[in-house]
Amino acid sequence: MIWLTWRQFRAAAAMMFAALAALAAVLALTGPGLSDDYASGIAACTTESGGCSNYVQRFFHDNQASFLAVTAIVLLLPALIGLFWGAPLITRELEAGTHRLVWNQSITRTRWLTVKLALTGLAAMTAAGLGSLAVTWWAGPIDKAAAGNSPGFPRLGPLVFDARGIVPIGYAAFAFALGVTIGMLVRRTLPAMAITLVVFVAVQIAMPLLARPHLLPPTRSAIQLTDSKIDLIGIRHPGGPLNLSLEKQVPSDTGAWVLSSRIVDASGKTVAGGIIPVSTSSGPCAPRPAGQEPEPRPGQSGHPMLPCLVELGRLGYRQQLTYHASSRFWTFQWYETAIYTALSLGLSGFCFWWLRRRLS
What we know:
The protein has helices spanning 2-45, 53-62, 64-96, 98-103, 109-138, 140-148, 158-161, 167-186, 189-211, 306-314, 329-357, and strands at residues 219-224, 230-235, 242-246, 257-264, 275-276, 318-324. By secondary structure, it is mainly alpha-helical. Strands 1-6-4 form a three-stranded antiparallel sheet, with no helix packed on it. Strands 2-3-5 form a three-stranded antiparallel sheet, with no helix packed on it. Helix 5 (109-138) runs antiparallel to helix 11 (329-357), helix 8 (167-186) packs across helix 9 and helix 8 (167-186) runs parallel beside helix 11. The radius of gyration is 27 Å and the shape is elongated. Residues 294-300 have low confidence and may be disordered.
């Protein structure tokens, strides 16, 4: 049975692992140079007065296309496994009727399904793991730069997290088991592939939006309004309220995954739309003619709205951030991998039940 399963599967496996070998070769050739460029750039910019922010942004923009390309490969790999390995695995046997021939050769249904799931499923998880770990190693310097870039790509965010570490192994196992399950239920290859893709994409969208933020309690902190956090400041009409838009980044952890960022008043209530009801016709928040901005005091920024920000701080306005720290990356990786592994085992168990009870 193992030999027969291997004969049926070897062409698809050879294509997949040949593609991974080509990817690994490219990453192995370019990875050391990329890491050296980042390390030397960071070492040089630390001695400059402006710090490394400009270099980090430039490094990320120079390598953004490669960053997105390798990330897309790892994101697509589990979906391809579900489509082309999982969905047709049992469905093509059911369509051709060859499963009855095997069952009449002293091969039990349970053994038949066990060998198919174990051999192909382990190959799927191995392929996803090798691709993910190779990309994680190669993209390490770019991931560091991407986390501090604006707009950033935090390690726990939907794009980077899903294509790094061990979690793609869980995705591949789930996609494979999902394809097998849907194939057994639908019994038609093309409809099974289409349904597998739709369900898998829906789960992948729902996980970072609905489940991942709640795997651990998020951290909440109130941050003083400063000019370094302002993304946009303006007045909609003369004498009207002040409109503030702030960067969604934790000062002490640029790689943190920010779930929400809002402005709150002294009582902790959210300021809707960032519109602060403060006078802009007179006082510290009133616009000043060009050339009449106050001189900054020692140790303060020279932002023209600095007096206004000081006044807003005195009135109790703060930026309220809800986030997960970047240090939780591997904790979330293990949690999410465990969830997808449990889903895969549940689907596999359903396949055995369906095979014994309903399939003929």
